[in-house]
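Running log. JK asked me to keep both predictions on one page so they can be read side by side. First protein, sequence followed by its C-alpha cells:
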Amino acid sequence: MEDLLKILVVDDEPEARELLKFMLQESDGVSVIGTAGDVDEAIHLMKIGRPHLVLLDIQMPGKDGFQFIEQIQGMNHEPGVIFVTAYEHYAIQAIRNSVFDYILKPVHQEELDRAILRFRTQGKKVQKPDLHELIETLRNNGPPRIKLNTRAGYMLIDPVEVVYCEADGNYTHIQLSSGARETTTQNLGQIEELLEGSTFFRAGRSYLLNLKYLTRVDRKNSNCILDYPGDSCSIKIPAQKVKMLESIFSK
C-alpha cells in the first residue's frame, strides 16, 4: 500500500478549490489536509498540516503563487509544488522548460492522477535556484501583446501599458501609459479575460484597474488615484471595492 500523500490546495476561487478537493478524494492514497484562498492562509496551513505536495494556482489577488514559493523557502518543511493554472500562453512554455510540473485548468481527473503519480515517482522538491530561474524567464519574456478589435480592424497592445479600462456598453475605452486613449469593440468582461494577471483589479461594473499605477486611495470619497508618466487620474469605485483593495494590500 502507498504511503498517504498529504496535499494542500491553494486557489483564490472557491469553486476551483472544491472541485480539486472532490477530485482528490477519487485518488487512492491521498489526503487533503486543507484548502486556502490566499498565500497567507496557505502558509498558516502549511505550518499546521505539513503537506507533502501543494496544488498551487499561479494567479491570485495580492500575493501570487510564485510569492508563496518564495515564502516557504528556508522553512523546515518544504513540499513539492504542482502549478494549477489557466495560463495558455507564455508562462506554460516557461514552466514546461523548468523543473516544475503543472496542470491546466479546467482540470481533468486523468491529468490530476498523472501529475500525482509523477510526483510520487520523482519526488521533486522546490529549490531556490529553480524558482529564481523560472521567475526570471517569465519576467524576461513577459506576456505577449494582445489583439483588441476596433471599428476599423484591430490593434496590438502590451498589457503592462494599460493603466485602466472603462466600460461603455459593448465597447471599452483603454487608457495607456503613453497618454493615448483607445477604444475597442470588445466589452469589459472580454478585456478582463485577455488582461488576466495579478496586477489587474475589477473595480465594479465600469472599471478594470492596473494596480501597478495605483498610488492612493481615498476611503471617504471612494476614489482611486492612478499615476502614469506625465499625468494622473481619479476614478470613483464602489465602497465595497475600496475595502477589497485594502485587504489586498494588507496581506
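And the second, directly underneath as requested:
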Amino acid sequence: MERINYSQTMNYHYSVKETPTLIRNSHTPNKRILVAGSSFRGYGKMIADGFTSCGLNASFLEPRCSEMNLLDDVRLLVSEKNRVRWSEEQARLNSHFLEEAVLSGEPDYVLVVSGAKISPTMSRFCQRNNVTLAMWAFDSAQHVPCIKKFVNDYNHVYFYEPNDLSLFPGLANARFLPMAYDPRYYYPIHGDEANLADICFVGSFDDYPTRTETILRLARKFPDLVLEVSSGPRWRYSPAMIKDRLRFGGRSNLRFERRSLPHDEINRIYSRARICLNIHHAQAKKAVNPRTFEILGSGGFLLTDRRMEGLSDFEIGRDYELYSSYDELFEKVTYYLQNPAARRLISISGYERVRRNHTYQCRAMSILEDLEKNA
C-alpha cells in the first residue's frame, strides 16, 4: 500500500486535558459513598472520583486478600473443595474488612465493584446500619461464581455484560451499565508525526489467541504499515516472553513491547495512532471493555470487533467502525488509511459523544439516581 501524507488531517480542534465539572446534587447533601473493589488499573479509584465530582464524599477501599503460599496454590489447583473453602474464607475476610470501614466512615452507600466476594452477613450488616449496598460487576456473571452466589444480597446490581440480565429474570433491581473512561487520563493530544503508528493495540495476549492471530494477519497483509502493540508485564525469560519473540520477532513493521503501560502513555498511543484496534476476549458475548471508551476519549479512531450493544447513541460509521471478519478488517484498514478525512470525522464524532455521556462521572450520576430511591 502506498504511504499517505497525513499531516494535514491530524490537527484536531480539541486537544486539552479535561477535568470533570463538579456537579452539586441537591438531593444528596453531605452524602458519603464507599467504593470497594480491586485496585486493578486504578478503575476503582476512577469510579470513586466520579462520585466525588457529583458532590459526594467518596472514598475507595481495596479489600484484603488472605495470605497465600506455594502449598496453598497447589491445594487450590488440585481440589475443588479447597477452592470453595478458600472462596468462602475470602468472602468472610472481605466482609469483615468492609464492616470495619462502614463503622469507621459511616457511609450512606457502599458500591462493590468487580464482583468482589462478600458474605450474606454484609448485606444484613448494611441493612441494620441503614446503608444501601450495590454491586457493579466488571466481569460476566457466567464466569465469576461469586456474582451468581451473592447477587440477591444487593439493593442494586449493575451488569457490564448485557446477557447477564437473562440469567436473573426475577431480579428487579438489576440493569445493564457498561464501563466508561476518565477524561483526566484520556483526552486528545497533538504530537510529532515522527514514528506514528498506522495501527495500534494495547492489551493482554495471554490466553487470548484471537488477538495474536489478528495482529499477525495484519502484519502479513500490510508489510508497509507500522503496527504498535503493547501487552502486560512478564519476566523477561518467561515462557510468555519466549512465545512473543517466536510469534512477533523478525517483523520490521511490528513494534511489540511487553510491559504494563501507565494511562498517560496509553493515551498518547491512542491519540496519535491512525487506527486504534480493539479486540475483545470471547467470554464477554456482548459487553464492551474499557478500551472502547478510552480510545474514543483519546480522540482515537476506533475499529472494533464488538458492536456497542445497548448504547443507542453510538452509530457504526459515524462514531466508530466495526469489523466481523478478517476480510472486512483488511478492507476497512485499507479504506480509512486512504481516506484520512473520513477517519477524522468519525474520530471527532466518537469523541464528542463519549465525553458527553460515557465518563465515570456520568456513570456515577446514573447509579446515584438509583441509590437515592433507597435513601
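Observation for JK regarding the second prediction: Residues 1-15 have pLDDT under 50 and may be disordered.
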